[in-house]
Amino acid sequence: MNDLNLIGQNFKQIRQKIDLTARKVGRLADDIEIVVVTKTVDIEAMKIVIKAGAKHLGENKVQDAVKKQARLDEEVNWHFIGHLQTNKVKHVIGKFQLIHSVDSIRLAQKIEQEAEKRGIIQKILLEVNVSGETSKYGFVPADLMPACEQISSLKHVRLEGLMTMAPFTDDRAVIRSCFQSLASLRTTINGQSIAGIQMPTLSMGMTNDYLIAVEQGATLVRIGSAIFHG
Ligand SMILES: *Cc1c(COP(=O)(O)O)cnc(C)c1O
Q1: Do the beta carbons of residue 205 and residue 212 sit within 8 Å?
Q2: How open is the CA angle 12-15-20, to the nearest 5 degrees?
Q3: Which residue's C-alpha comes closest to atom 13 of ligand 1?
Q4: Ligand 1 center to 30 CA (angstroms)
Q5: Range of the domain at 37
Q6: pLDDT digits (tens, 9 = 90+) for 123-179
Q7: What is the pLDDT of residue 4?
Q8: Which residues carry this modification: N6-(pyridoxal phosphate)lysine (predicted)?
Q9: What is the CA(79)–ligand 1 centre distance, in A?
Q10: What phi, psi does 177 have (nearest 5°)?
Q11: Structurally, how many domains does the chain consist of?
């Protein structure tokens, strides 16, 4: 890990770059939140980034995340961004404001069950495998609309949007087109007026591609390395 002093500075610089890019494409900077991905760092580093203004933290492993939550007193929004197994759902419900990585109907149904038990409504995003790589989790675009229809009937789950990860490539055009596809899937689904579904959120963009994501309409960018190891 880098000098701890750099963390706050990195966070603020990234915030500025996002704001500039947003303005350049005619968006409001306020419409984009940074989810600081803290999966590789300890509590000390997390406290520093919170002090620098971070309001959203993202973790990808249930056990680690829950331990960190118990040790942090600061008020933050927690985001679950990792692959979630159905047998871990009970540990996640109500502890994360948003689960980004719902990748099957079965998982959404399990979330419904556990949220109902606790009497809460859990906000979720559906993960989309836009590029169709077989190594990736997520709904393929063709399955997304029927999935949204099924999930719209779950009373303790609120579907707020879509999430994706761009393919591993240096080709900016390929990354851009992936983000563009996710944005247009959201537009299409919002236009269908499926009962109860209006999705404001697009979670896309990481350290290597977050500015492209902002240009293409991201409302949440998930950034780790550029803040903690940049
Ligand atoms: C680790 C991770 C990130 C952050 O990646 P960086 O390249 O370190 O910014 C974002 N999203 C998910 C799902 C991740 O697992």
Answers
A1: yes
A2: 125
A3: 81
A4: 22
A5: 4-228
A6: 999 999 998 888 889 999 999 999 999 999 999 999 999 999 999 999 999 999 999
A7: 82
A8: 39
A9: 12
A10: -70, -30
A11: 1
